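Posting for a labmate who doesn't have an account.
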Amino acid sequence: MHSDFLIIGAGIVGLTIAHELRKKYPSSQIAILEKESDVAYHSSGRNSGVLHSGVYYSQDSLKAKFVVQGNKLMRAFCQDKGISINETKKLILCSHESELPELFKLVEKSKLNGVEHELITSKEVAAIEPLAKTVEHALFSPTTANIDPLKVCLALKEDLISKGITFYFETAFLSAKENVIITKDGRQFTSSMVINCAGLYADKIAHNYGIGKHLYIIPFKGIYLKIKDDDFKLRTNLYPVPNPAWPFLGVHFTVDAYNNVKIGPTAIPAFWRENYSGFKQFKLDEAIRILGLEAKLFLKNSFNFRDLAIEEMKKFNRSFFLNEAFKLVNKKPTNPKYEWLRPGIRAQLIDLRTNELVNDFLVERGPNSIHVLNAVSPAFTCGFAFAEWIVEQFVESSLKKL
C-alpha cells in the first residue's frame, strides 16, 4: 500500500498535519496509521481541553511562536464545526507574597509574546471570581478557554475522511527499512515521506530510523478529580503561580467545556508508557528501562526530579491533593462528591546526554522522514499553527531537495 505521505499517530499533531497537507497538496495520497481503534486514544483525548493563551513560554521558544495563532486557529475550526467553546478565561493567583516576582515575570512574558493579559488587584479578582483568593495581585488571561478535545479530534477525523485521507486503525508500527514500514499485523506500507507523530512512542520509531538515539521519552501520569457541589461553582480557571524549579504548572482548577469543575492534574512519574491503571498495557522491558532511568534521575536530582517525585507521590493522598488546590480559593466545598477522571500520560522527552528535560517542541528530520519527538502542552492549543510550520519547514523543504 503506497502513499505520498504516511503519518504515524492519530493524535492532534498527526491529524492537524494531515489537515495542512491536504490544503497544500490537494491531489496527494495521504494515509494515517494508528495502533488504537480510533483517534485521540491517548494524550490528545485525555487532556484538560484548555485553550492556552501563552503567558508561560519564553519568547524564543516554539511554544511561544505558535500558541497565540494556534488558539485562534483552533477557535476557528471549532466554530466551523459547531463545537462549543466555553469562554472560561483564567486567573493566575498568588498564595504568598514570595510568589509576586514570578507573577510579574509572567506579565513580562505575556507582553513579549503578544498575549492579551491584565495585571489586576485582589479586589478585581473578586469581581471576576468571588471564590478566588490571591495576595495583592493576579494575572488575568481573557483568551484562555475550554473545549472538548475528543470532539475536536473526532471532527478532524470526519473532515479528513471526507477529503480522501485514509485511516488504518489497529495498525501498529513494527519496523521500518528504507521506505517500507512493516506493521504488527504483517502488512507493508510504502511512502515517499513518513511523518512520525506517535506521541508516547515517537522516540522508539525515530530510533528505528537512526534519529535521536540520545533522546528518550519518560512518562508522567496526570490525574484529575471532578468536584460535584451545588455551592461550589467556578466561573473561571484558577491556576497557581508556577514554581520555577519544576517543569509543570501545579495543581489548579479547570472549568471544562461542560462547566464541570476539575482539580488537577498531577505529574506523577509513571513506570511504563501506558501506565494508566493497574497493570494494563504493562511491558516489562519498558518498565525496567524507565525505572532505571527514573532511579538515576532521583539519585542525581536532575532538574529537581527527586523533589518533584516526592511531592507528586503525595498527591495519591486525596486530602493532600485537595489542600493544594484549596490554597487558591477562600472557601471549600460544603457537601462535595468527588470523582476520579480518566488519567492521561504526558510524553516528556529527556536528553540522555545531560539528563535534562527537553522543554520545547522538538522535530527532527531523517531521510524521507520527519519525527515530532516532543509535543507536550500546549501542543493541543498549538496544533494547527504547529502543523503549518512543520509542513512549511520540513515537508516543503524536503520535497524541494527530491
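Reply:
Got it, the C-alpha cells are right above this. The mean pLDDT is 96.
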